């Protein structure tokens, strides 16, 4: 018999703490630049993924990053997930400055860990 | 009751979520729902993104692949000359997990739908 171990829950706050500074330090006060946007995307996601790995939680992660220039155009996003409602989760971290929007979404999918109780 | 026992064997190929399988479903759902003549309006877009993402998710579930979890993300935007870039990274098992992304659109809108299939051990 075991209750939901807090270390096994989807670490939503930890992810927010990791992603927000990763975006801000790269994009704060920066102008949208189409030749650099690829590198920004890669850097943000790579930084986040490395730090998520170091959390050492029993999760697989999917991180997506959308960077869009502010030009008056509309954009809508939606996500549908078929997963374990109790253990899996997602977090969305929006960011914007004068010239662009950046939305990073992190999905965490739990992995079964084989925990063998020692027999006494 | 704790979660089911982990199954450390990867699934056989016929039971894997492969990129081709995911891509075929996304393409079909986009073509049926959006086609070539759809125009972007804020209200319509709201309804349409949810519809497309739910439909892709339902069809992925109906593939009947055991022990797979699915994520579907749909981005629907208006083309007004803005620049946009999307990227993704995953931390998963290359042997069992896969993703597919398809971009559909015309001069007025673009719709990028991405589906991820993740195996639960």
UniProtKB/TrEMBL annotation, chain A:
GO terms for biological process: microtubule-based movement. InterPro entries: Tctex-1-like, Tctex-1-like_sf. GO terms for cellular component: cytoplasm; cytoplasmic dynein complex. It holds the Pfam family Tctex-1. Gene3D superfamilies: Tctex-1. GO terms for molecular function: dynein intermediate chain binding. It comes from the Eukaryota. PANTHER family: DYNEIN LIGHT CHAIN TCTEX-TYPE, T-COMPLEX-ASSOCIATED-TESTIS-EXPRESSED 1/ DYNEIN LIGHT CHAIN. This is Dynein light chain. It comes from Triparma retinervis.
UniProtKB/TrEMBL annotation, chain B:
CDD domains: DLC-like_TCTEX1D2 (cd21459). It holds the Pfam family Tctex-1. It comes from the Eukaryota. GO terms for biological process: microtubule-based movement. GO terms for cellular component: cytoplasm; cytoplasmic dynein complex. Signal peptide: none annotated. One of its GO terms (molecular function) is dynein intermediate chain binding. InterPro entries: Tctex-1-like, Tctex-1-like_sf. PANTHER family: DYNEIN LIGHT CHAIN TCTEX-TYPE PROTEIN 2B (PTHR21255:SF7), T-COMPLEX-ASSOCIATED-TESTIS-EXPRESSED 1/ DYNEIN LIGHT CHAIN (PTHR21255). This is Dynein light chain.
């Amino acid at each position: 018999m075991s209750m939901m171990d807090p270390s096994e829950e989807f670490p939503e706050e930890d992810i927010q703490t990791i992603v927000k500074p990763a975006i801000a330090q790269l994009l704060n006060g920066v102008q949208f630049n189409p030749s650099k946007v690829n590198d920004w995307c890669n850097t943000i996601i790579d930084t986040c993924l490395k730090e998520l790995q170091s959390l050492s939680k029993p999760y697989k992660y999917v991180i997506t990053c959308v960077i869009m220039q502010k030009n008056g155009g509309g954009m809508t996003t939606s996500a549908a997930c078929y997963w374990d409602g109790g253990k899996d989760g997602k977090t969305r971290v929006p960011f914007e400055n004068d010239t662009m929007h950046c939305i990073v979404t992190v999905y965490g999918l739990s992995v079964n860990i084989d925990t063998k109780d020692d027999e006494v | 009751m704790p979660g089911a026992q982990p199954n450390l064997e990867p699934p056989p190929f016929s039971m894997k979520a492969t990129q081709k399988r995911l891509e075929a479903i996304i393409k079909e759902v986009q073509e049926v729902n959006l086609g070539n003549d759809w125009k972007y309006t804020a209200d319509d877009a709201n309804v349409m993104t949810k519809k497309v993402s739910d439909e892709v998710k339902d069809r992925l579930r109906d593939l009947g692949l055991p022990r797979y979890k699915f994520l579907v993300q749909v981005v629907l935007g208006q083309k007004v000359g803005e620049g946009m870039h999307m990227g993704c990274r995953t931390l998963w098992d290359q042997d069992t997990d896969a993703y597919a992304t398809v971009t559909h659109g015309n001069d007025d809108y673009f719709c990028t739908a991405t589906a991820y299939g993740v195996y639960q051990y």
